[in-house]
Specification:
The structure is a single chain. 21% of the residues lie in helices and 25% in strands. By secondary structure, the protein is α/β, with parallel strands linked by helices. The chain has a single domain, classed as L-arginine/glycine Amidinotransferase, Chain A (5-stranded Propeller).
Length: 253
Amino acid sequence: MFSKAIVRTPCKNLVNGLTSANLGKPDYEKALIQHQDYIRALQKCCLDVTILEPDENYPDSTFVEDAALLTPHCAIITNPGAPSRKGEITNIKNELERHYSKIEYINNPGTLEAGDVMMVGDHYYIGISERTNTDGAWQLINILESCGMSGSTVLLKGVLHLKTAVSYIGNNILLAAGEFIDNVEFKNFNIIKINDEETYAANSVWINDYVLVPIGFTKTSKAIESAGYKVIEVDVPEFQKLDGGLSCLSLRF
């Protein structure tokens, strides 16, 4: 069970964030409204939400998930693979020191963004991507093993982050799209297949008794409900324009 979440209010410089989505520039005012909707969804999941101030130095800083990985035993400050995002870790570290007595770090030459890390119980799947390299993944595995957890790597082919197209929603169930539907790494899971038109919804978030799903992806929402979950639909198209999904917008612990 999760009890807390950390989010960061989008900065005005959000409109200059990194993206490959080709969906146009985000509308800042709409992004603020959608971020508030996201916070309300987290609160509906019974989370106590800490809201950090916007940071104009880092356009992508509202995507707090990439800057840290939170486990039951320690927090791990990442080392983002995107050069423009490396400075985001400082403010996240300062906040996490309020919650964790043990904080570990990913160091150069390793890079890691936690959007590439999917937690399944005590095991963590780590995507090898343009943002997360093998060195960073093995640093993380060593940290996890020192705390009685484990990790393994998954080579990505055509997505930004691992959780762009695969998400664990509990009860041995994965939401999977594209290259992950038949990936041998996930052969022992029950797979809810996400079709190509709804790939964005593969990044849905299981929190306590709910699954957060981006609004407008009806087939995915119905499939999750049919699996026995309560769905909360969240309106986040301005963040989609920046390759950002629902998991990217918070740290949950």
